[in-house]
Amino acid sequence: MSSGVDVRIDALVNACERDLGDEALWIKPRAYPESLALCIIDSIYSTGAQYGQVANIVERYRTYRSGQGGNADLDGPAELLATFDELGSAQAWAEQIGNRRPTSTTPGAPLKAEAVRDGASRLVGLGIRSVEELRLTAESDAIDVVNKSWLEVPGQRSGVTWAYVLMLAGIPGTKANRLVVEYVADVLELPVGEVDARSVSGWIRDVAKTKGWNSIHTEHAIWRLQTRRPVSGSVVEVADVAG
């Protein structure tokens, strides 16, 4: 690291120690380390939703797959797409597993179930059928192609849900969430427009390494702070995503 980066990391470490409290008490995000299907479902349904609503959908999917003799916690996007084929349509999937929430408030916006199917289809089309394949892709520039494709899914162009797919899969993101960027800019006393999201992601990893923290949990704790949610507690969640 250059001395300039060292100074930034030191400032961020001090700010995180001050603002985030005891790392052992942080509210941790949910994780599906072997189920890309659940990462997709959870991330898309988490926008604007309460914790219980998302958890119920995940459990309904688990129950449905168990009834088929499958295991939702090992499913990839191909297995997820098969459930849409079996039920006949995204609307039928929404009624039996998901819910009828739309992807946006725009009149005629497609259901979130449609976005789940589209997102899964795009990943399969790009050759990503498991968390492990996504992890390998995230280690190369090819992840930018996947990110760009995901942003074309109805209602997902902000990039928030893609960041949560990676988080739920246990994969550090390459670009920090907008609210995390704002926090870092404030700590470093820099204009937000001059702070690169990719650089912020790297700095957060450096902070976590310095402190012996999990980098995904660190970014999540900052996000909770920025959205005025409690940072510490006994809940394990990623829900009501809005920034």
UniProtKB/TrEMBL annotation:
GO molecular function annotations of the record: peroxidase activity
Keywords from the named record: Oxidoreductase, Peroxidase
Superkingdom of the organism of origin: Bacteria
Protein's name in the database: Heme peroxidase
